[in-house]
Amino acid sequence: MDQVSFQDVVAQTGASWDEVSWEDNPLLNLVTADSREVKPGSLFICMPSASRDTHAFLPEVAKAGAQAALVHSREGFALAQSLGLAVVLVEPVGTRFNFALGRVCRLIFDDPSSKMKVVAVTGTNGKTTSTWMIRHALASLGQKSAYLGTLGFQIGDSLRELSNTTPFPVELWKLMDEAARAGAETLCLEASSHALFERRLAGVQFDVGLFTNLTQDHLDFHGTMENYASAKKLLFTEYAAANDKAFIAGLNREDTRGQEWARELPCRVFTFGRSEADITVEPLSVAVDSLHLSFSALGEKVEARLKVGGLFNIENATTAFTGLIALGVPVAEAAEALAEVKAVPGRFEAVPNDLGIGVIVDYAHTPDALEQLLASARELQPKRIITVFGCGGDRDRSKRPKMAKVVSELSDVSVVTSDNPRTEDPQAILADIMVGIQPGAESVQVIDRREAIREAVLMAEPGDVVVIAGKGHEDYQIIGRTKHPMDDRLMARAALQERGG
Question: Where are the chain's structural domains?
Fold first, then answer.
């Protein structure tokens, strides 16, 4: 990281004269929001937080050698001044703080997003799988690429966990810098609606943006579906416009929002879908662990045999194929590359056994995702589908009965349990869910998730399929504010072993 002057940092924030103070113009060579990382020459970021006043760390970071601070209150500004720090104030009005911080990070990290191609995937369902597919398809073509999203951060064979699908600005820019320094030619990232709305991605230069679909989720944060859609659309409007690159959009024409946006956006657009789109897909065969698809794009028609299965992965594969085309990969090579992609952890992941019982673990946690998941499970022609599911606490309550309705209509037995209850009463969450269980549908309530999975596996007979939905790859359960070790796949294996399988 090259040194930059504090004055240059201030210029990126848009701060007025009374929001800046310094005695000299220190040179900065590190930016961090973690007081433990501070070294001489650091710019310390006091991130706004609902749980603590981060200005309390200023004495500690000043002692550790920080040269400057970016603060978010007048009180913090005065404290930084008293400690002899160069300081700039950016009040958290609307999205101003993250917007300014993104510009600051871009300067200090010398804009790694300009040194590689950046493709972002947004939408309710399919972000993780589509992004994962693009990254691994590029890797199969010999391109060094990075993945950043729900599963963590991956470059090469190393995958490490992240706290958020789309990190906050300082961590985001650090990871982009790491990817660029490691020689990544492309960064494939998931853009959550929260991150887009909060401008966590401000300053990032995108080459490609992909939209998968829009179904109900996160209304606890956005309030309405219109607000939720508007947050997603920002990728293709505000972020695309603040870009030195020739931005290309890939939009799902099967979704009404995708159709609308395709008519409105001023950038180059590829639409994709089953028909009447720039890029079309025709499923030739669908199995639990494979897909045979025919793609048409740019006047060419190619077939691809994928190592992932399930009906919902048709849309994911088409999203990924569109992303590859938008990145300039030739049509035939894009199809060949997708054929090398392996299944995403925790997405329609089978738990093998010798009992003749199908056990599938999946991340589906919205009504639409559950509908697609259970339709794919029904394609296996099981005797019965037994579905274990719950709903996250401190999240959109209105989707709970809708999820229950889908599960009880498309399953033979619904096992209602806890997901990540967080700070809510698990019994209250189950009560919300049970409102949507359809009359006459067989269901049981088991609050403890481990016991619920065990009960579902023990009740299953040869020919049945047990679907364990909601947590997928996650190896923890959040109770209160604490993460407790818990992995649906391991619990399913334990229950199968108890039966001798």
Answer: 4-108, 112-338, 349-498
Each residue of 293-330: pLDDT tens digit?
Answer: 999 999 999 999 999 888 889 999 999 999 999 999 99
Contact 66, 38 (CB under 8 A): yes
Q: 112-338 has which fold?
A: UDP-N-acetylmuramoyl-L-alanine:D-glutamate ligase (3.40.1190)
Residue 271 and residue 262 in contact, taking contact as beta carbons nearer than 8 Å = yes
Q: What is the homologous superfamily of the domain 349-498 according to CATH?
A: Mur ligase, C-terminal domain (3.90.190.20)
**According to the model, what pLDDT value does residue 289 have?**
79
Distance of CA 126 to the CA centre of its chain: 9
Q: For 55, which DSSP code?
A: G
Q: Is the per-residue pLDDT at 179 higher than 90?
A: yes
Strands 186-190 and 145-149, by their bridges, are: parallel
Enclosing H/E stretch for 199 = none
CATH placement of domain 4-108: 3.40.1390.10
DSSP states of 359-416: EEEE---SHHHHHHHHHHHHTT--S-EEEEE---TTS-TTHHHHHHHHHHHH-SEEEE
Question: Cα–Cα distance between 342 and 238 in angstroms, integer?
Answer: 34
Q: Which residues does 130 contact at the CB level (< 8 Å), separation at least 6?
A: 121, 210, 212, 316, 319, 320, 323
